[in-house]
Amino acid sequence: MLSAIGKQRTSKVLATAFLLAIALSLWLLYHPDLGSSTHILRPVHERPATIDTSDTASVTADIVHYFTSHPLGPPYKDVFGELGERCRILDDWIVLADTTNDASRRNMLSAAIEKTAAQHFPFLKNPGHLTSKAPLSELRRSFTPGSAGIVIPTSEGTLRFAAHLVVSLRSVLHSNLPIQITYASDNDLSAQSRSYLQSLVESGPPLEFLDITTVFDDASLDLQHGSWAIKPFAALASRFERVILLDADAVFLQPPEVLFEHGAFRAAGAGALLFHDRLLWQHAFAERHEWWRSQVRRPPSAALNRSRVWTEDYAEEGDSGAVVVDKSRADVLVGLLHVCWQNTRAVREEATYRMTYGDKESWWFGLELAGARYEFEEHYAAVVGWLEGEEVCSFVIAHVDEQDRLLWYNGSLLKNKGREEMKHEYEVPVYWMVDGEWRKGATKQDMSCMAKGEPRRLSGDERSILEAMIERARKIDQGLHLR
Ligand SMILES: *[C@@H]1O[C@H](CO)[C@@H](O)[C@H](O)[C@H]1NC(C)=O
Ligand SMILES: *[C@@H]1O[C@H](CO)[C@@H](O)[C@H](O)[C@H]1NC(C)=O
To answer: What residues does 50 pair with on adjacent strands?
Structure first.
């Protein structure tokens, strides 16, 4: 007991000393009175408009030394916040390196960036360039400047839904965004399945395929057996700068292109857009909330302050079936690195997937802790389904756009994806509801309903879109059966 308290105290003292060191070094780095100064180009960060260009090499070296002498080991649960603080420094260094005109300063910063990135994110080591000293900048250089696209991770198990989604996007919604299908080695998605997916494309650019294990060192990841864990890595590895990451079972009612026009990216200056889960189980997960609070060591962001999970103790925050990230922004890039770290094997097994469900909460948590600007959709999850008395019921959760029009829902076009015996039952939903009260079904096989809101009918257009998607899906199912 005593030693536990002693340990706790030591780590508090260490943490305080560390924060002081960082505060001092940042003051030294940015203080306008020291040396000449140059302008920082990026407006989104609240930092002084000028930076110091005098010698900062020794401050930087001290911080790198501090990091290497204080590796972040288990219990990982306790170091989420600390890693977030380090990500913020990485962000600062990247912005400084990207904006300085002084080559020696840039080289010094780049060395610190790469050393820190390699220490905290060993998966960045590209299996094809094992001797590379700069895997993070190589990864950044692999992004196509100005590009945007959809990334869909899938394995054999979700091939059918990935096929439905690709055809829905291209042949029904007429989306022309490039689509990258990601997977973890040939065992995860065979060459035959990949060419099958390619054969479904009738318009727009051909599908692109990316085996994540050729981009990142899989030793600390085990993505083939990691289920959802592949998602942040797929977003990070993609050549697209702006990524719409989709679960294979997502159903869109509007072309995903509209996501890039979301106000979050304009007025709010965010670099990531996330969707909410259902408001459920208030005050039921005290341990989870205590943990989140213990790791968020700074005043919460505006996005978190608006969260009813954060402020009113509801249990579930994020639905990560769709996530939008802009990796051209250093804050979002380091935030994404944090999300990836949470989904590495050791961390997800010990903390992430125990404290919360799958990858879904790792997105806002990583972006928040790393100081990235992100936004959530305005509403908590809606429902799309069928009228039962005054309630709207189904197995899926839905999301609306800024004009409160249906945008997408999870759980595929099937009436009930969760039941094997219903795997060929499709049904177009008729009603939807937002901002009511959820009544959750007892098990995954039971419908959940929303009550106390206004049931709204899907428009004729929305129903025809879904009818067309279902017709295509049935054809795909027949084709897969014959294969
Ligand atoms: C969020 O709320 C906290 C506590 O009320 C406050 O200190 C912080 O400044 C707020 N954050 C923003 C970005 O407004
Ligand atoms: C839709 O998402 C919710 C919340 O994450 C989940 O509980 C539900 O099972 C999903 N529906 C389907 C059919 O997968």
So the answer is: 39
When pLDDT is cut at 50, 70 and 90, the band that residue 25 belongs to is low
Are the C-beta atoms of 450 and 438 separated by less than 8 Å? yes
Residue 74's domain spans which residues?
Answer: 4-120
140 found inside a domain:
no
Residues 170 and 295 in one domain: yes
Domain match, 215 and 241 both: yes
Q: Which of 361, 376, 391 is a domain's end point?
A: 376
Residue 304 CA to ligand 1 centre (angstroms): 9
CA of 410 to the centre of ligand 2 (A): 6
Residue 423 lies in a domain: yes
- Per residue in 182-192, pLDDT (tens digit) is 999 999 999 99
Q: Is the C-beta atom of 419 inside 6 A of ligand 2?
A: no
Tell me if the pTM is above 0.90. no
pLDDT band for 18, please (50, 70, 90 cuts): low
Q: Ligand 1 test: best mutation among 44, 293, 301, 305, most atoms within 8 Å of CB? A: 305
Buried b (16+ CB within 10 A) or exposed e, 435-448: ebebeeeeeeeebb
Report yes or no on 126 lying in a domain.
no
Whether the CB-CB separation of 126 and 373 falls below 8 Å is answered with no
Q: How many domains does the structure of the chain reveal?
A: 3
Ligand 2 neighbourhood includes 418 CB (under 6 angstroms) = yes
The Cα–Cα gap between 231 and 233 comes to 5
